Amino acid sequence: VSSSTAVAAGSEPQKPQSPPHPAVSVSSGEFDVEEYLLPGAHAARLLHRVRRAERMLLSYDRTGWLDDQPARVTGRLEIRPAAELGPIILCLDTSGSMRGARETVAKALALECLRGAHKQRRACYLYAFSGPSEVQELELSVDAPSLDRLLTFLSCSFSGGTDVDAPLKLSLERLAKAEWSQADILMVTDGEIPAPDEDILQAISRAHSEMGLEVHGLLVANQVTEPMRRLCTDVHVFKSWKAVPGGSEFAFA
């Protein structure tokens, strides 16, 4: 008998043994390729993919993140009911330097304030000022007498000097009334105004601290003047001069 067919008495044939597989870890994703492709290993393959996804999700980096700083809103659009909007006090410069295109813008703004105040159910009061003690007062509303007075005002030409203290003093007196205490002031001018009186500036500062008063300046000119910087909480410069007849000379270069 050849040695290739010889079998020891009392012993069974030995099957060839394959080299042992290393330990397989499902959680680490270390699979033997042949075992991974065996039939019935579908559940294992799904588990393998889940584990891989978990490791990917847990390995992200955070950049530009401050853990020790409180969160804050960087921008939002807030819409409040009209009842929460305060009245408008419009101080309109009608001095001689406002004639022409600036006058057109000022009159258009008076109409827009009337329209906006009526739409939002807000009170609106106009102080049109020029020289010392030259202040016209007009409550802007949509009843017939008020509209007649507004049309008369719009038909007049602007002239005279500039006294900014008088309309500001009258505005502060109106703010002392309960129904006007939440009002803000809109000052429309070309900025060619003298420095407001220090007492008035201090009164405006107190009203800002105690009542939340804001003075917004709409400048119908191409540069912000120092009196407007001192007076106003915010200064807005009118720039749409191409839409105004004769307004090209005031446009920015």
UniProtKB/TrEMBL annotation:
Record domain VWFA: where: 88-192
Transmembrane segments: none
Protein origin, superkingdom: Eukaryota
Chain segments carrying region Disordered: 1-26
Pfam families: VWA_2
InterPro entries reported in the protein's UniProt record: VWF_A (IPR002035), vWFA_dom_sf (IPR036465)
Listed GO CC annotations: cytosol
Name by which UniProt lists this protein: VWFA domain-containing protein
Biological source species: Astrephomene gubernaculifera
